[in-house]
Structure formats: C-alpha cells, structure tokens
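WP5 quarterly update. Target: Enoyl-CoA hydratase. Source organism: Craterilacuibacter sinensis. Length: 263 aa.
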Amino acid sequence: MSKVLTRIDGRVLSITINRPEVMNALDSETHRLMSDALDAYAADDELWLCVLRGTGGQAFCAGGDIGAMHAAANGGEPYVVPASGYGGLTSRFDLNKPVIAVVDGIAMGGGFEIALACDLVIAGESARFALPEPKIGAVAYAGGMHRLPRQIGMKRAMQLLLTGETVRAAQALDWGLINEVVPDAELDAALARWTGKLTACAPLAIRATKACVNAGLDQPLSAALALQDSGGIAALEAMRTSRDVIEGIAAFSEKRKPQWQGR
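Structure tokens (predicted):
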C-alpha cells in the first residue's frame, strides 16, 4: 500500500498521507510522494483545488518520522526533505492554486507546519496542534518560526514556539490558526461545503487572488497596489484576459450560474 494516496473528484485532488501506524509521520519516501503529487496538481489546469488529509482518524500528520531521522543519523538511509519542503509544500512559494488541510487528530511539528502553509484549515473537535521541536533539541525548521508570528502575532506565536505546548481546536480557531471546527464525524460534510464554495468561484480569479496576496504580504500597501497595477503579476494578467471574465459578466447579467473553464 502506498504511503500517499491520491484521488481526483471532478476538479478536486485529494492527497492523503497513509501511514497511520506512525501517526502519518513523514519519512523520505512520503515527502517525495507528496511533492510529486503537488507537482502534478500545479501542472494540471483541470485541477482547481487540493485537499490534504491523513488516514486513521488519530493524526493529520505527526511531523517528521523521528525513527527515520534516528536511523539516518546512525548510518542508515539519509533523511531527505525535497526542495519544495515538508510534505512538498512548506517551501513551495509559486503555487497559486488553493490548498485545504483537513485536520483529524494531531498536527504536530512538521505536520502543523504543513497546515500553516495551507490556505484554509478545517479541523475536527479532537484536533490538536503543536510545535514541540524544542523538546527534542530542535526548532520548527519548515516555516513554523516564520509563518506562525505572521499568522497569529508575536506573543501567541512565541508562546507556542518556545514552550512546545499543545493547542486544541477551539483555541486554534479563536487564535485564527484555522477556519472552522466541526464535530469529528462531520469533517467530510464540512469539506464538501468548503470545496463547493471554492469551486463555485472562477479558478483563475482564485489563483490571481492568492498570487496578489502573497506578492503583497511583505510590501507597504502603496507598493502592493502599484505591483498589482503594473502588470507584473502573471496570474492576475491571465485572469484579466480570460474567457471566464466574460462568462462571469454574462452569467450575472443573464441571472444564471456561470460555467467556468479556467481559461
């Protein structure tokens, strides 16, 4: 059985970590398979949305496989993280398509960092989040030290980064770490609702929005607006000249549902 499962449902690609015996921890092969799946997602214009999950009901992802790291440190196979980062995502900065994390159980260390790198996160009530790396003499290498303060502010981020303490789903929602908490048994229904919301929107508009947001994050507002208007954001220019813009205006005028083509 593959360590990573993929499924396509219409415009949606699901990537599922399939190592429940180790709480979906990531060894070198799992990193590579996830990176390959995300490469395929990025390259396929027929896919508009990606969902990341874990199997087993106990964990989204427990982070790096400590056993594999220990073996590597003692002369075994090297522990390899791809250039695209943990799970093929945390260092992937050119993906304008949306990614949703569905957290069922724990998201620890690199698993939490993967969730932080997603655009949206929905979680079951039993979900828990932590960056416990300092407890084993390490740090949150996969973006956690940088994404966390940007997403929830310095004091709360430092609380998690310096203590390794665990945050439960309700608190994660309150802090703005995730978008929605539902009973564990309702995660699939919640995901269907969210995928419906996103796929109802024009895919090129979604990609343009994500590209503009990311391009402007480290800019003053005036500079971000100037960049947006300069023609320098390829995804935005693709949207402006797309058939979908014409279709969206026509559908609104004709009071019908638009038929997006992603072109």
